[in-house]
């Protein structure tokens, strides 16, 4: 039981040490990155929707 507690404490201290090494983005960088991801996701969604619409119309015309 004590060995398990020691392993958990070691793990937590190692995690804390690694988290101190992380290069965290600034608030502005985070906002900019988030906006880029949201915009790219919307553009990809619009593109896939347009392709789906064209293909579904094409299949409807072919099988009509």
Question: What does this protein structure show overall?
Answer:
The chain is mainly alpha-helical. It has a domain at 25-64. Helices cover 88% and strands 0% of the residues. It contains two helices and no strands. It has helices at 2-21, 27-62. The longest helix is centred in the last third of the chain and has 36 residues, at 27-62. It is elongated. The model has no long low-confidence stretch (mean pLDDT 95).
Poorly predicted runs are none
Number of helices, counting only DSSP H or I runs of 4 residues or more? 2
Order of helices and strands: HH
Overall geometry comes to: elongated
The largest β sheet comes out as:
none
Which quaternary structure do these chains form?
single chain
Strand content range = under 5%
Question: What is the SS-derived class?
Answer: mainly alpha
What is the total tally of β strands? 0
Distance between the termini: 72 Å
Any key phrases for this structure?
64 residues, mainly alpha, 88% helix
What can be said about this structure in brief?
This protein has 64 residues and is mostly helical. It contains 2 helices and no strands.
Topology:
Blueprint: H1 2-21, H2 27-62
């Amino acid at each position: 039981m004590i060995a398990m507690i020691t392993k958990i404490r070691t793990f937590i201290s190692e995690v804390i040490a690694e988290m101190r090494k992380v290069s965290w983005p600034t608030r502005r960088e985070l906002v900019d990155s988030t906006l880029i991801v949201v915009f790219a996701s919307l553009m990809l969604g619009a593109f896939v929707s347009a392709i789906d619409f064209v293909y579904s119309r094409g299949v409807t015309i072919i099988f009509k």
